[in-house]
Amino acid sequence: MDEIRRHTPDANRLSILSAGVLLTYALPRLLETPSPVLNWNLLGLALSIPLNLNLLTVFFAAALTAAGMDWILRSHPTFESEISLQHWILPTLTAFALGIPLYNLPPGSAWWVSFFLGGALLLMVFVAEYIVLDSSDTRYAFASAGLIAVSFSLFIILASALSFSGARLILILLVLFPAAGLVSLRAIHLRNGRWEWQWAIGIAMACAQIAAALHYWPLSPVQYGLATLAPLYALSGLAINLGDAMSARRALTEAAVYFALFWLAAFILR
Questions:
Q1: pLDDT score of 210
Q2: Domain count, the chain
Q3: What is the span of the domain harbouring residue 144?
Q4: How far is CA 158 from CA 142, 180, 224, in A?
């Protein structure tokens, strides 16, 4: 019991960080601010980005989460001089992915349900990242599996929310490409203990290409999210299995099955 308690996050730091992030999300609902538009030309593509408080709080919440995660990890007994950057990835992505639907949803019960569920999910991610800092923790395997599951869930939330918002393709790719790369990078590292940058970049490119191809299809946001999640989950599993010395034939077969299952689910939801 003493060992388990020793690896429990400081309650004060955890509550302060969670409250700060949630307050950041709630702030735009309390204040009325002007919404200037930033006209930006990117490689010949004209983009108009509204600079309202809702959008700015999404990025501020993500930055606050990264800084707060580092603050919480520094209270860990085994932290010492270990670099904590790897433990910022999923909490920051969680804050960003949760902020997108909160940005798009109108005021009402759906917004509040998303707000509280998002807060609970963010809290669980904080605790799990704290636990996996020490691989000898008795809950490491459970926390690691939970983080991998959450990371893929966040990606489908993010992809679905972007589809629901009607964002332009270039904006969707600017978000999904790094998100897919970070999710696969962290998932592979949690399972195999190695940073597979080549795999992460390749998986991100595959996800971006499929996201671009499906952008103009008549798909619902959930269908779009499932279809774009398919290559991320299948290829990440392929990288993990090959890293575990599974035969290439078996690993490829398993990846193809998962890819087909996600696309089948997207087709059924139609």
A1: 92
A2: 2
A3: 139-270
A4: 24, 10, 10
